[in-house]
Amino acid sequence: MNEIWTEKYRPKTLDEVVGQKHVSDRLKAYVASRNMPHLMFTGPAGTGKTTCSLALAREMFGDEWKGNFMELNASDERGIEVVRGKIKEFARTSPLGGAEFKIIFMDEADALTSDAQAALRRTMEKYSGICRFILSCNYSSKIIDPIQSRCAVFRFKPLTAEDVGGFLRKIVEKEGVEIDDDAVKGLVVVARGDMRRAVNSLQVAASLGRRIDLDLVYQTTGMANPEEVRKILESALGGDFIKARDLLERTMIDFGLSGQDIIKQIHATYFDLSLTDMEKVRLIDKTGEIEFRIVEGSNEKIQLEALLAYLVMIGGSKR
User: pLDDT digits over 119-130, tens only?
Assistant: First the structure.
Protein backbone atom coordinates (compact mmCIF):
# COMPACT_ATOMS: atom_id res chain seq x y z
CA MET A 1 0.00 0.00 0.00
CA ASN A 2 1.92 3.00 -1.30
CA GLU A 3 -0.89 5.55 -1.02
CA ILE A 4 -2.96 6.90 1.82
CA TRP A 5 -6.49 5.91 0.92
CA THR A 6 -8.00 9.16 2.20
CA GLU A 7 -6.07 10.93 -0.59
CA LYS A 8 -6.36 8.20 -3.21
CA TYR A 9 -10.15 8.14 -2.96
CA ARG A 10 -10.74 11.82 -2.20
CA PRO A 11 -13.61 13.01 -4.47
CA LYS A 12 -12.32 15.06 -7.38
CA THR A 13 -15.62 16.77 -8.30
CA LEU A 14 -18.50 18.25 -6.31
CA ASP A 15 -20.82 15.53 -7.63
CA GLU A 16 -18.65 12.89 -5.94
CA VAL A 17 -18.74 14.54 -2.49
CA VAL A 18 -20.48 12.25 -0.02
CA GLY A 19 -23.20 13.29 2.41
CA GLN A 20 -23.11 17.08 1.95
CA LYS A 21 -25.52 17.63 -0.93
CA HIS A 22 -26.88 20.82 0.65
CA VAL A 23 -23.34 22.24 0.38
CA SER A 24 -22.24 20.84 -2.98
CA ASP A 25 -25.40 22.06 -4.75
CA ARG A 26 -24.74 25.65 -3.67
CA LEU A 27 -21.08 25.39 -4.64
CA LYS A 28 -22.02 24.11 -8.10
CA ALA A 29 -24.12 27.26 -8.54
CA TYR A 30 -20.98 29.34 -7.90
CA VAL A 31 -19.10 27.31 -10.52
CA ALA A 32 -21.89 27.85 -13.04
CA SER A 33 -21.89 31.62 -12.46
CA ARG A 34 -18.05 31.81 -12.44
CA ASN A 35 -18.24 33.92 -9.31
CA MET A 36 -18.30 33.40 -5.54
CA PRO A 37 -18.03 35.36 -2.29
CA HIS A 38 -15.62 34.58 0.51
CA LEU A 39 -16.69 31.30 2.10
CA MET A 40 -16.49 29.79 5.57
CA PHE A 41 -16.81 26.02 6.01
CA THR A 42 -17.54 24.99 9.56
CA GLY A 43 -18.26 21.60 11.10
CA PRO A 44 -16.71 18.47 12.62
CA ALA A 45 -13.47 16.95 11.33
CA GLY A 46 -13.60 14.51 8.42
CA THR A 47 -16.88 15.72 6.95
CA GLY A 48 -15.60 17.04 3.60
CA LYS A 49 -14.56 20.68 4.13
CA THR A 50 -11.14 20.35 2.49
CA THR A 51 -12.52 18.02 -0.18
CA CYS A 52 -15.20 20.53 -1.17
CA SER A 53 -12.61 23.31 -1.39
CA LEU A 54 -10.34 21.28 -3.69
CA ALA A 55 -13.25 20.09 -5.83
CA LEU A 56 -14.56 23.66 -6.13
CA ALA A 57 -11.14 24.90 -7.29
CA ARG A 58 -10.82 22.08 -9.84
CA GLU A 59 -14.22 22.79 -11.35
CA MET A 60 -13.82 26.57 -11.22
CA PHE A 61 -10.34 26.75 -12.82
CA GLY A 62 -9.94 23.48 -14.73
CA ASP A 63 -6.34 22.56 -15.58
CA GLU A 64 -5.06 25.86 -14.15
CA TRP A 65 -6.45 25.17 -10.67
CA LYS A 66 -3.10 24.57 -8.98
CA GLY A 67 -1.77 27.97 -10.05
CA ASN A 68 -4.87 29.74 -8.79
CA PHE A 69 -5.28 27.90 -5.50
CA MET A 70 -3.18 28.12 -2.34
CA GLU A 71 -3.76 25.95 0.72
CA LEU A 72 -2.50 26.94 4.17
CA ASN A 73 -2.93 25.20 7.49
CA ALA A 74 -3.53 27.92 10.03
CA SER A 75 -2.64 25.70 12.96
CA ASP A 76 0.95 25.59 11.65
CA GLU A 77 1.09 29.13 10.29
CA ARG A 78 -1.09 31.09 12.64
CA GLY A 79 0.70 34.39 13.26
CA ILE A 80 0.22 37.84 11.79
CA GLU A 81 3.43 37.53 9.73
CA VAL A 82 1.78 34.80 7.62
CA VAL A 83 -1.10 37.12 6.72
CA ARG A 84 1.29 39.97 5.92
CA GLY A 85 3.68 37.69 4.02
CA LYS A 86 2.48 34.58 2.22
CA ILE A 87 -1.20 35.47 1.99
CA LYS A 88 -0.78 39.09 0.86
CA GLU A 89 1.89 38.10 -1.67
CA PHE A 90 -0.37 35.48 -3.25
CA ALA A 91 -3.51 37.62 -3.06
CA ARG A 92 -2.03 40.66 -4.82
CA THR A 93 -0.83 38.78 -7.98
CA SER A 94 -3.09 38.34 -10.98
CA PRO A 95 -4.91 35.03 -11.64
CA LEU A 96 -3.47 32.63 -14.22
CA GLY A 97 -5.04 31.28 -17.39
CA GLY A 98 -7.71 33.94 -17.71
CA ALA A 99 -9.38 33.05 -14.41
CA GLU A 100 -11.54 35.73 -12.81
CA PHE A 101 -9.92 35.34 -9.37
CA LYS A 102 -7.73 33.09 -7.23
CA ILE A 103 -8.65 31.13 -4.08
CA ILE A 104 -6.80 30.97 -0.78
CA PHE A 105 -7.95 28.07 1.39
CA MET A 106 -7.12 28.38 5.10
CA ASP A 107 -7.61 25.10 6.92
CA GLU A 108 -8.18 25.19 10.70
CA ALA A 109 -8.71 28.95 10.56
CA ASP A 110 -10.01 28.92 14.13
CA ALA A 111 -6.36 28.45 15.20
CA LEU A 112 -5.41 31.92 13.88
CA THR A 113 -4.42 34.40 16.55
CA SER A 114 -6.69 37.41 17.11
CA ASP A 115 -4.03 39.72 15.57
CA ALA A 116 -3.79 37.51 12.49
CA GLN A 117 -7.58 37.50 12.13
CA ALA A 118 -7.67 41.29 12.35
CA ALA A 119 -5.01 41.55 9.63
CA LEU A 120 -6.81 38.96 7.52
CA ARG A 121 -10.04 40.96 7.67
CA ARG A 122 -8.37 43.91 5.94
CA THR A 123 -6.63 41.67 3.39
CA MET A 124 -9.93 39.99 2.46
CA GLU A 125 -11.48 43.41 1.86
CA LYS A 126 -8.57 44.95 -0.05
CA TYR A 127 -7.96 42.11 -2.53
CA SER A 128 -11.51 40.81 -2.96
CA GLY A 129 -11.48 41.78 -6.63
CA ILE A 130 -8.86 39.20 -7.60
CA CYS A 131 -8.82 36.79 -4.65
CA ARG A 132 -11.43 34.85 -2.67
CA PHE A 133 -10.88 33.20 0.68
CA ILE A 134 -12.26 29.90 1.96
CA LEU A 135 -11.87 29.54 5.72
CA SER A 136 -12.30 26.08 7.20
CA CYS A 137 -12.86 25.66 10.93
CA ASN A 138 -14.30 23.29 13.51
CA TYR A 139 -15.68 26.09 15.69
CA SER A 140 -17.05 29.18 13.95
CA SER A 141 -17.35 30.94 17.32
CA LYS A 142 -13.55 31.30 17.34
CA ILE A 143 -13.65 33.41 14.17
CA ILE A 144 -14.14 37.13 14.80
CA ASP A 145 -17.48 38.61 13.73
CA PRO A 146 -16.04 40.99 11.08
CA ILE A 147 -14.64 37.99 9.19
CA GLN A 148 -17.84 35.95 9.59
CA SER A 149 -19.89 38.83 8.18
CA ARG A 150 -17.69 38.89 5.06
CA CYS A 151 -18.25 35.18 4.35
CA ALA A 152 -21.07 32.96 3.16
CA VAL A 153 -21.20 30.31 5.89
CA PHE A 154 -21.58 26.61 5.01
CA ARG A 155 -22.26 24.25 7.92
CA PHE A 156 -21.10 20.67 7.41
CA LYS A 157 -22.89 17.95 9.35
CA PRO A 158 -21.49 14.59 10.52
CA LEU A 159 -21.90 11.93 7.84
CA THR A 160 -24.65 9.36 8.24
CA ALA A 161 -23.96 5.66 8.76
CA GLU A 162 -25.26 4.98 5.24
CA ASP A 163 -22.90 7.53 3.68
CA VAL A 164 -19.84 6.19 5.51
CA GLY A 165 -20.74 2.54 4.93
CA GLY A 166 -21.42 3.08 1.23
CA PHE A 167 -18.10 4.88 0.67
CA LEU A 168 -16.18 2.16 2.55
CA ARG A 169 -17.77 -0.55 0.40
CA LYS A 170 -16.64 1.25 -2.75
CA ILE A 171 -13.05 1.26 -1.49
CA VAL A 172 -13.27 -2.39 -0.42
CA GLU A 173 -14.50 -3.37 -3.89
CA LYS A 174 -11.76 -1.45 -5.71
CA GLU A 175 -8.98 -2.69 -3.41
CA GLY A 176 -10.18 -6.30 -3.36
CA VAL A 177 -10.32 -6.39 0.43
CA GLU A 178 -12.24 -9.20 2.14
CA ILE A 179 -14.39 -7.84 4.94
CA ASP A 180 -17.36 -9.02 7.00
CA ASP A 181 -20.58 -7.01 7.06
CA ASP A 182 -20.24 -6.66 10.85
CA ALA A 183 -16.76 -5.20 10.36
CA VAL A 184 -18.13 -2.48 8.05
CA LYS A 185 -20.73 -1.64 10.70
CA GLY A 186 -17.94 -1.56 13.29
CA LEU A 187 -15.95 0.91 11.18
CA VAL A 188 -19.04 3.12 10.94
CA VAL A 189 -19.34 3.07 14.75
CA VAL A 190 -15.65 3.90 15.12
CA ALA A 191 -15.91 6.77 12.62
CA ARG A 192 -18.75 8.62 14.40
CA GLY A 193 -19.48 10.62 11.25
CA ASP A 194 -15.80 11.22 10.37
CA MET A 195 -15.03 9.78 6.92
CA ARG A 196 -11.28 10.30 7.28
CA ARG A 197 -11.19 8.23 10.46
CA ALA A 198 -13.27 5.50 8.80
CA VAL A 199 -11.03 5.22 5.71
CA ASN A 200 -7.81 5.33 7.74
CA SER A 201 -9.14 2.63 10.08
CA LEU A 202 -10.06 0.46 7.10
CA GLN A 203 -6.56 0.81 5.61
CA VAL A 204 -4.88 -0.08 8.91
CA ALA A 205 -7.03 -3.20 9.25
CA ALA A 206 -6.44 -4.17 5.59
CA SER A 207 -2.67 -3.79 5.97
CA LEU A 208 -2.57 -6.98 8.05
CA GLY A 209 -3.33 -8.93 4.89
CA ARG A 210 -6.20 -11.09 6.12
CA ARG A 211 -9.96 -11.02 6.11
CA ILE A 212 -11.25 -8.13 8.22
CA ASP A 213 -13.67 -9.11 10.97
CA LEU A 214 -15.21 -7.13 13.81
CA ASP A 215 -12.55 -8.05 16.38
CA LEU A 216 -9.77 -6.94 14.04
CA VAL A 217 -11.48 -3.58 13.51
CA TYR A 218 -11.61 -2.82 17.21
CA GLN A 219 -8.07 -4.10 17.84
CA THR A 220 -6.62 -1.79 15.19
CA THR A 221 -8.65 1.33 16.01
CA GLY A 222 -7.95 1.73 19.71
CA MET A 223 -11.54 1.06 20.74
CA ALA A 224 -13.05 -1.74 22.77
CA ASN A 225 -15.83 -3.86 21.36
CA PRO A 226 -19.06 -2.23 22.61
CA GLU A 227 -20.31 -5.65 23.71
CA GLU A 228 -17.31 -6.03 26.02
CA VAL A 229 -18.02 -2.63 27.59
CA ARG A 230 -21.67 -3.57 28.01
CA LYS A 231 -20.69 -6.78 29.84
CA ILE A 232 -18.57 -4.74 32.26
CA LEU A 233 -21.45 -2.43 33.10
CA GLU A 234 -24.02 -5.22 33.38
CA SER A 235 -21.74 -7.17 35.72
CA ALA A 236 -21.38 -4.13 37.97
CA LEU A 237 -25.09 -3.37 37.92
CA GLY A 238 -25.72 -7.03 38.74
CA GLY A 239 -23.66 -6.66 41.91
CA ASP A 240 -20.55 -8.61 40.82
CA PHE A 241 -17.87 -5.99 41.42
CA ILE A 242 -14.89 -8.36 41.16
CA LYS A 243 -16.03 -9.73 37.79
CA ALA A 244 -16.65 -6.21 36.47
CA ARG A 245 -13.21 -5.07 37.65
CA ASP A 246 -11.49 -8.08 36.03
CA LEU A 247 -13.39 -7.57 32.75
CA LEU A 248 -12.44 -3.88 32.74
CA GLU A 249 -8.76 -4.62 33.30
CA ARG A 250 -8.69 -7.32 30.63
CA THR A 251 -10.50 -5.11 28.11
CA MET A 252 -8.10 -2.21 28.66
CA ILE A 253 -5.09 -4.50 28.22
CA ASP A 254 -6.46 -6.38 25.18
CA PHE A 255 -7.41 -3.22 23.29
CA GLY A 256 -4.60 -0.99 24.62
CA LEU A 257 -6.93 1.63 26.09
CA SER A 258 -6.25 4.46 28.50
CA GLY A 259 -8.66 5.52 31.22
CA GLN A 260 -9.93 8.42 29.10
CA ASP A 261 -10.55 6.09 26.14
CA ILE A 262 -12.61 3.56 28.09
CA ILE A 263 -14.62 6.13 30.03
CA LYS A 264 -15.84 7.69 26.76
CA GLN A 265 -17.14 4.29 25.66
CA ILE A 266 -18.68 3.65 29.07
CA HIS A 267 -20.54 6.95 28.76
CA ALA A 268 -21.86 6.05 25.30
CA THR A 269 -23.02 2.61 26.50
CA TYR A 270 -25.26 3.97 29.29
CA PHE A 271 -27.94 4.79 26.76
CA ASP A 272 -28.23 1.13 25.72
CA LEU A 273 -28.78 -0.16 29.27
CA SER A 274 -32.17 -1.01 30.77
CA LEU A 275 -32.18 1.82 33.30
CA THR A 276 -34.60 4.59 34.13
CA ASP A 277 -33.85 8.10 32.90
CA MET A 278 -33.09 9.23 36.45
CA GLU A 279 -30.58 6.41 36.93
CA LYS A 280 -28.88 7.31 33.65
CA VAL A 281 -28.73 10.95 34.76
CA ARG A 282 -27.05 9.96 38.01
CA LEU A 283 -24.54 7.75 36.17
CA ILE A 284 -23.66 10.44 33.63
CA ASP A 285 -23.20 12.99 36.40
CA LYS A 286 -20.85 10.63 38.26
CA THR A 287 -19.00 9.68 35.06
CA GLY A 288 -18.37 13.35 34.25
CA GLU A 289 -16.85 13.81 37.71
CA ILE A 290 -14.65 10.71 37.30
CA GLU A 291 -13.51 11.80 33.82
CA PHE A 292 -12.55 15.23 35.18
CA ARG A 293 -10.49 13.65 37.94
CA ILE A 294 -8.65 11.43 35.44
CA VAL A 295 -7.88 14.40 33.18
CA GLU A 296 -6.58 16.34 36.18
CA GLY A 297 -4.12 13.56 37.00
CA SER A 298 -5.83 11.21 39.44
CA ASN A 299 -4.93 7.51 39.33
CA GLU A 300 -7.15 6.14 36.55
CA LYS A 301 -7.33 2.61 38.02
CA ILE A 302 -8.71 3.91 41.33
CA GLN A 303 -11.12 6.28 39.60
CA LEU A 304 -12.49 3.62 37.23
CA GLU A 305 -12.95 1.18 40.10
CA ALA A 306 -14.77 3.95 42.00
CA LEU A 307 -17.11 4.27 39.02
CA LEU A 308 -17.73 0.51 38.99
CA ALA A 309 -18.45 0.68 42.74
CA TYR A 310 -21.02 3.39 42.08
CA LEU A 311 -22.62 1.21 39.40
CA VAL A 312 -22.84 -1.62 41.93
CA MET A 313 -24.63 0.69 44.35
CA ILE A 314 -27.02 1.86 41.60
CA GLY A 315 -27.79 -1.77 40.78
CA GLY A 316 -28.17 -2.63 44.47
CA SER A 317 -30.86 0.00 44.93
CA LYS A 318 -32.96 -1.82 42.31
CA ARG A 319 -32.68 -5.23 43.90
Answer: 888 888 888 888
Decide if pLDDT at 68 tops 70: yes
Rounded-to-integer distance, Cα 49 and Cα 64, Å? 21
CATH of domain 226-318: 1.20.272.10
| Whether residue 150 has pLDDT greater than 60 | yes
- The β-bridge relationship of strands 151-155 and 131-137 is unpaired
Q: How confident is the model at residue 77 (pLDDT cuts 50, 70, 90)?
A: low
Q: Where in the chain is the domain with CATH 3.40.50.300?
A: 5-155
User: CATH for 161-221?
Assistant: 1.10.8.60
DSSP lists the bridge partners of residue 133 as: 104
- pLDDT of 83 reads 64
Assign a CATH topology to domain 5-155.
Rossmann fold (3.40.50)
DSSP 25-70: HHHHHHHHHT---EEEEESSTTSSHHHHHHHHHHHHHGGGGGGGEE
Distance CA 307, CA 317 (A): 16
